[in-house]
Amino acid sequence: METIIGVDIGGTAIKMALFSEKQQLLDKWSIPTNSRNDGAMIPETIITSIKKKLNEEGLSLSALKGIGIGVPGPVNETVVKRAVNLGWIDFPLKQIIEAALKVPVLVMNDANAAALGELWQGAASGCQSIVFATIGTGVGGGVIIDGKVLNGTNASAGEIGHIPLQTREVRVCGCGNQNCLECYGSATGMIKTMNLIAGFERVSGTKEIFDLAAQGDQQAKEAIDTTIDYLAQAFAGLINAVDPEELVIGGGVSEAGPAFLTPLQNALQTYLFPEIRGKLPVRKAMLGNDAGVYGAAYQVIHARGSEEP
Fold this sequence. Notes:
By secondary structure, this protein is an alpha/beta fold. Helix 2 packs parallel to helix 3 (about 95-100), helix 4 crosses helix 10 (about 290-305) and helix 6 (about 185-200) runs antiparallel to helix 8. It has ten helices and twelve strands. The two termini are about 20 Å apart.
């Protein structure tokens, strides 16, 4: 039986999944991320874990036809250009694992992998072109056009969280720029907006804000409306440029469900191009933390399919 493995490298855990040649999930597991010594041991822990899992499943290494890996940072065809949380700069992850396992390896940005996962077996199943956004501590995302990830010249396409905004205040982004979308549209940004409106540290989480809004709290409603308007402006700019079939929203803030997604869809209508307005579904991501391993595996499946005569 031929198999494919998807890997999603996070700051605290590395998630992995084993798929059959029929694209069925056989097993999934995770191991701790050893980021000591600038992540030097991460490739070896992945290699060891894959060998162990194949042995447990009674599968030979020769049955493994490819490994897809999602990494938190910009990636080109040969190296991980930068993964700050792991300590990697121009890190040859692909070459290390290919040399050890003698198996083709594809490495991609983790948000792009999650976008592919939702396209393959998640909220956007059946689509070919989507904008995917994760709204949590930051704002991440991926853009897929005609079934292919838009990666960009500098491996930085899909950095939705770094779309610049025009605002009345100044917030410095972790990237070093000022007033990026994630400064205002993330969970962190919404909490900061709420506390600025209140004039004191009133909340520490977005669930508190949505709960207060449901009780009629005007400050909470204003914080949510302000955050959603920033997101709608940025998303609409991107959507107007690429005209996708769907906008898929994941991340912790999406767990608010209709209390977040419905006003976001409504706010988008103000900024969308007339031909798109009213025609773009906004869906909540379905795969959760598994989206990355699904997408990483799908990238391998898609590449293998394109190579077949």
